[in-house]
């Protein structure tokens, strides 16, 4: 029997998120207890996050970008609306999640004894997909 | 015997598709759970191996 499934990625594991962001060249702060996000306009609502990229490391950004731990364990991105329109929107976040998922998948495979057979980047109309193939260790 | 193969395709939004081939019985579910992690499943379907192997034969008898 074989099986096919589609999954929605949730960011749960901080280390893969941090690794992915660093791989993209960002300096990342990790605050286990949370820390305030810098704002551009003083009247904006104050927010805290557990993983933060300061705006000084985000080209053209108006505010910091953060990932806040939710009660259910997920890390949810906090991006200023202005910044969403300036290169840090759905496409940027998608790339972050893609790197996260790849790192998480490779680590899981290593830990569970699967063997990476190939890694392929596939160009699609929407952008690059990453295809990983594993075989079961005999 | 088919090689047990797991293909993970991660799209531009970071969501993944898992394709398991050549598995039998519980091994399929175990591999699926290993790679699912804590992610939510939106689509799931089983693909019995005999379906693909019998397909050409069925076509022949229809003619």
Judged by helices, strands and strand pairing, the structural class of chain B is alpha+beta
- What is the helical fraction of chain A, as a range of percent? 25-40%
Q: Give the neighbour order of strands across the main sheet of chain B.
A: 1-2
H/E order of the elements of chain A?
EHEEEEHHEE
Strand count, sense and barrel status of the largest sheet of chain A are: 4 strands, antiparallel
Quaternary organization: heterodimer
Spans where pLDDT lies below 50 across 5 or more residues of chain A: none
Question: Percent range for helical residues of chain B?
Answer: 25-40%
What is the H/E order of chain B? EEHEH
Summarize the main sheet of chain B: 2 strands, antiparallel
Mean pLDDT of chain B: 79
The largest interface is: A-B, 44 and 43 residues
Identify low-pLDDT runs of chain B: 53-63
The proportion of strand residues of chain B reads 25-35%
Sum this structure up briefly:
Chain A is 27% helix and 37% strand.
Provide the fold topology.
The complex is a heterodimer of chains A (138) and B (63).
Chain A: E1 2-8, H1 14-23, E2 29-36, E3 48-53, E4 65-69, E5 75-78, H2 81-84, H3 90-112, E6 114-124, E7 127-136
Antiparallel strand pairs in A: 2-3, 3-4, 4-5, 6-7
Helix pairs in contact in A: 1-3
Chain B: E1 5-10, E2 16-21, H1 26-36, E3 40-47, H2 49-62
Antiparallel strand pairs in B: 1-2
Question: Could you characterize what this model shows?
Answer:
The complex is a heterodimer of chains A (138) and B (63). Chain A has 3 helices and 7 strands, in the order βαββββααββ. Chain A starts with a strand and ends with a strand. By secondary structure, chain A is of the alpha+beta class. A 4-stranded antiparallel β-sheet of chain A has the order 2-3-4-5, with no helix packed on it. The mean pLDDT of chain A is 93. Chain B has 63 residues and is α+β, with helices and mostly antiparallel strands. Chain B has a two-stranded antiparallel sheet. In chain B, strand 1 and strand 2 form a beta hairpin. Chain B is globular, with a radius of gyration of 15 Å. Mean pLDDT of chain B is 79; it is low at 53-63. Classes of the chains: A alpha+beta (138), B alpha+beta (63). Strand 1 (2-8) of chain A pairs antiparallel with strand 3 (40-47) of chain B.
């Amino acid at each position: 029997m074989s099986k096919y499934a589609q999954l929605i990625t949730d960011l749960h594991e901080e280390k893969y998120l941090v690794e992915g962001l660093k791989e993209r060249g960002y300096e990342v702060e990790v605050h286990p207890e949370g820390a305030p996000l810098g704002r551009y306009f003083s009247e904006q609502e104050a927010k805290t996050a557990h993983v933060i990229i300061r705006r000084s490391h985000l080209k053209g950004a108006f505010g910091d970008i953060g990932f806040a731990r939710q009660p259910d364990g997920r890390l949810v991105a906090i991006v200023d609306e202005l910044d969403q329109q300036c290169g840090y929107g759905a496409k940027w976040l998608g790339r972050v999640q893609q790197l996260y998922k790849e790192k998480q998948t490779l680590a899981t495979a290593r830990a569970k004894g699967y063997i990476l057979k190939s890694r392929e980047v596939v160009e699609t109309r929407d952008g690059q997909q990453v295809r990983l193939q594993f075989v079961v260790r005999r | 015997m088919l090689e047990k193969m797991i293909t993970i395709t991660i799209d531009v939004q970071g969501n993944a598709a898992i394709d398991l081939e050549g598995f039998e019985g519980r091994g399929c579910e175990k591999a699926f759970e290993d790679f699912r992690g804590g992610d939510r499943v939106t689509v799931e379907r089983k693909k019995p191996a005999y379906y693909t192997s019998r397909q050409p034969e069925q076509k022949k008898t229809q003619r």
